[in-house]
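Just scan my protein:

——
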Amino acid sequence: MFTEKSIFVHCNVAIESDVQNAVDATIAKFGKLDIMFSNAGIAPGKPISSILDVDYDIINNVFDVNVVGAFFSAKHTARVMIPANIRGAIVFTAGEYGIKVNCVSPYFISTPLVLNRTGMDKQMADELFAEGGNLKGALLDEEDVAKAVLYLTSDDSKYVSGMNSTNYKQRSVTICL
């Protein structure tokens, strides 16, 4: 999977120094950073049926990864893009320096995280997700999400900014400032 065009850097996005190291390792290997796709996200480790089931540690852990981690990713990507005058892409977050701002919000995909969180087996989840998605009977998978991200980071989307690609039948409101 990894080639001379890719590297692996262990990174806990909730730890700013880890994110800074991942960005710096990218610069050291490739000389620049054009695209940041911040894809880290977690759900509580146990099913939550009521707000009364949520304690500080649960919400703090989810917030640190899903919100603070996304912020650190944007911050350290912008830290290297701006001085290098890179007109790249940060998929999910904001930037005023020619950096495109987009978000990908896919419908459910039968990943281990989703299956564990819902308690469903893959076949049951696939049937439910295919029926509930935007295109009845069409099942969204990881490759569909990857293709949406690749489009948003390509020159084909040079004037696409402030978009939220929902990939499912939920309504979305996007405010571009």
Observations:
- The chain has one domain: 16-176.
- The first helix runs from residue 16 to 30.
- The chain is about 40% helix and 10% strand.
